[in-house]
Amino acid sequence: MQELHDAPLAPLTTFRLGGPANRLLTATTDAEVIAAVREADDSGTPLLVIGGGSNLVIGDKGFDGTALRIATKGFELSGTALELAAGEVWTDAVARTVEAGLAGIECLAGIPGSAGATPIQNVGAYGQEVSSVITEVVAYDRHTRETVTLPNEACAFSYRHSRFKAEPDRYVVLRVRFGLEDAGGRSAPLRYPETARAMGVEQGERVPAASASETVLRLRAGKGMVLDPEDHDTWSAGSFFTNPILDEEEHAAFLARAGERLGADVTPPAFPTGDGRVKTSAAWLIDRAGFTKGYGTGPARISTKHTLALTNRGDATTEDLLALAREVVAGVHEAFGVTLVNEPVTVGVSL
């Protein structure tokens, strides 16, 4: 297991921000992961687990403890059953399932990060979420000091949330198991309007899985959501804020504020969640509050391609990024009475 001291963490994140860790371990097997976690727990050392670093905001002072980078490998496909080691690169795994002609995660192409992070955040995009295809998650339980296997129903998945996110200091994901679909090389039914439009089909139709994946990659790239070291619009964590979910009273108040600000003929996006609540668009809120693409004059700005992405233009600090995020949160709340919540995990800092 590789060990470094006073190790830079910024290169391990897609923001390329953050100070060093006292100690950085890189684990390439499940046994090494468990050993590193147990050592930290036994010694009372703060522990930061890092996968692909695509959903992480680390403070400029760094991390006073042990950072554990999970670099395990393992792609096992048996029929429609897929098992991924936590350290597998997610984009590569998606591509391999598409090549195998299987459906279920083809519209999650291009999402940066590692496989082990997908159940934590219940990663989703373009009409698909991993919660619909995850069958089991194998994790190390720091409370019981045992390796456990949690079936889908025990993971408490919801929108960008899970049991693992609710108890961040308890579970370290080791492996994720998926149940995919053999649809003869076709995709799952397309659920996202933009994807269907781009492919010239109706929602609910199936298309070749490879075509669906390629279309999503093209759409994501157009929004700066596919990593490119030469494009500062991709020096981000993707969507920085989750889409707000409002109860009936909150939604009514929001509609009233939107009507006062933008006119009664404006209809904000609304997506019923099935439990009496409504999800609206964070990107719409940000844009209508005056934070348009490219907003900002400093080293941290809103992406020129997508209002949901906050970006490092090359020489930003974490404090620069947070100042921009706080400005956006305050502006949206002032305009519409809705409080945006950050999607990335923050380490040593907060909004």
UniProtKB/TrEMBL annotation:
Q: Which reaction does this enzyme catalyse, per its entry?
A: UDP-N-acetyl-alpha-D-muramate + NADP(+) = UDP-N-acetyl-3-O-(1-carboxyvinyl)-alpha-D-glucosamine + NADPH + H(+)
Q: Which UniProt keywords apply?
A: Cell cycle, Cell division, Cell shape, Cell wall biogenesis/degradation, Cytoplasm, FAD, Flavoprotein, NADP, Oxidoreductase, Peptidoglycan synthesis
> Is Cytoplasm tagged as a keyword?
yes
Main location class: cytoplasm
GO MF:
UDP-N-acetylmuramate dehydrogenase activity
This enzyme's EC code(s): 1.3.1.98
Q: Which InterPro entries match?
A: FAD-bd_PCMH, FAD-bd_PCMH-like_sf, FAD-bd_PCMH_sub1, FAD-bd_PCMH_sub2, MurB, MurB_C, MurB_C_sf, Oxid_FAD_bind_N
Give the location in the cell.
Cytoplasm
Where does this protein act, in terms of pathway? Cell wall biogenesis; peptidoglycan biosynthesis
| Residues in FAD-binding PCMH-type domain copies | 17-183
Is this entry keyworded Transcription? no
- SUPFAM superfamilies xref list: FAD-binding/transporter-associated domain-like (SSF56176), Uridine diphospho-N-Acetylenolpyruvylglucosamine reductase, MurB, C-terminal domain (SSF56194)
- Which portions of this protein are annotated as coiled-coil regions? none
Superkingdom in the source lineage: Bacteria
The active-site annotation reads: R160, S239, E343
Q: What cofactor does its activity depend on?
A: FAD
* Family to which this protein belongs: Belongs to the MurB family.
Say what the protein does. Cell wall formation.
Q: What is this protein called?
A: UDP-N-acetylenolpyruvoylglucosamine reductase
List the source organism.
Streptomyces glycanivorans
